[in-house]
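Schema walk-through. Below, the input block comes first and the output block second. Nothing else is stored per chain. Lengths vary across the set, and this one has 149 residues.
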Amino acid sequence: MITDRSEVTAMIRAAKVRKGLKWVDVAEAIGRSKEWTTAACLGQMTFDKAQAETIGGIFELSDEAVAWLQIVPHKGSLPTAVPTDPLIYRWYEMVNVYGTTIKELIHEEFGDGIMSAIDFSLDLTRESNPAGDRVHAVISGKFLPYKSY
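--- output ---
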């Protein structure tokens, strides 16, 4: 009996390693981006029935696990307030260093509001560079202004 979505995430990760799968191939199977699909497989998004069944087939999941893929998850994937994984920590560091700058520039351009993480897209690609390949990250979120009432 499965009692938590994290158990399904562990099953997916184990099957991915066992089968030698790539996230981009899983994404192609359900017709979504590799970024969204990976987040969903790691327990941060909700699959619809057809997507969940496809994911279940790819990772050889039980019907119960497929049902869990269709339940809205508890969002937030970091195990600690300050991340300890070096790659995730560098993103945290970027927000620590540039967060106030990003906030200032968004407010100057758009006004008082926020950038949505709900109406949002992320695209990660490899950028060739003679000095060493680079991670090219593009994030796009809808601006949501605060309302006066």
